Fold glucan endo-1,3-beta-D-glucosidase.
Amino acid sequence: MANYKFSVFVIAIIFVFFSAIFRYSQAKSLPLAAAQIKLQKQVQNGEPFVGFNIGTDVSNILSATDLVSFLQIQKITQVRLYDADPDILKALAKTKIRVIISVPNNQILAIGSSNTTAASWIDRNVVAYYPETLITAIAVGDELLTTVPSSAPLLMPAIESLYSALVAANLHTQIKISTPHAASVILDPFPPSQSFFNQSWSSVMLPLLQFLSKTGSPLMMNLYPYYVFMQNKGVVPLDNSLFKPLTPSKEMVDPNTLLHYTNVLDAMIDAAYFSMKNLNITDVVVLVTETGWPSKGDSKEPYATIDNADTYNSNLIKHVLDRSGTPFHPEVTSSVYIYELFNEDLRSPPVSEANWGLFYGNSTPVYLLHVYGSGTFLANDTTNQTYCIAMDGVDSRILQAALDWACGPGTANCSEIQPGEDCYQPNNVKNHASYAFDSYYQKEGKAPGSCDFKGVAMITTTDPSHGSCIFPGR
């Protein structure tokens, strides 16, 4: 969880930045190895997805029933719990929401020491709910190697005992078992091609990876570009951390592979792939079990802002749903779980620890994600009252073209933005485009993709109506 993150991703060598001499397409043209094809087959459930971690250090937390209703309103279909809360698992029954449950670190000792205890845990937390509740995986501990190293010798015994219990229940093909790692288990993370796992954990990592390969389970990694940036300010540009468009001179280039990296997260994921490759494991998929950006911090955390959190998470969602893959594995896009759904206001300082959530505990949004083009997914609106408006900073000529399409071929009702009508003022292309976009969006039933207009529109929960001008969404 978030308080583990200050130990993550200690950069051993400096990111190398220089102008792109070789085109990225040249690097991508390298033939896919057979291992990459095997890796592609390991990707489960088809499309990559964005899920959410649900922490419970929240005052006035929603009841389990209200939580599940909220997830359904937000069209969230993948969640991760840090335990196996029985009330939540019951409330998730007969929904289409898939859930990763967890064995807390303080239970590893008992489970790793007793097959009977492991079997009892599976009976109590899995068999009792599955298949009515769609449990997809079990996360055994969380960053155990780096936070509770004394328990490391019992990690594999715990995983193997739980797996044996799943086999006995005939659930081992439906439910995967793995353990989330902090990024700091990987040394020399850039360039990715030189990365390797900390050899202090070789006695655990190699058997674990062999187990994951054998069972078709993912390598779970908690990856935070925020901490990479904070620990390397002046070396790692903010834009690289936030998925912002880059000029070729700002791309990170791996000098060994000539692969170009346009964002930090892809480099971190590929560092995991290369680290596995160095141990001759080439068919295990990386699942990002935690990533995110805090929206508020103290004086020592000036980059923990709403704007940066919005930018990171919005661009992350687009990156995953675009199925962009990584430079090393363009054929495989890792699914991610955003840390986190709710601000955990009961967490200890620093300030950022309580401010990773997209929503407050009462389910109102901390900030509005710019997830235009993704339909109703994460509209951040508990009443599903959403509008489609023009984005800020868009060239007026591009907006005018989108406006013309909406009012013409798009058949939006644009009568209210004609001269003398209620929404004519202010008489500028951004105001008129917003009205036309919302008219089209509402006419299309808020369908996925109906608020895009080639990337110049966005979904908002703030009513853009003003004075006597009432937008269609109201």
User: Anything to note?
Assistant: Residues 220 and 287 are 5 Å apart (CA to CA). DSSP finds 15 helices and 15 strands in the chain. The mean pLDDT is 87.
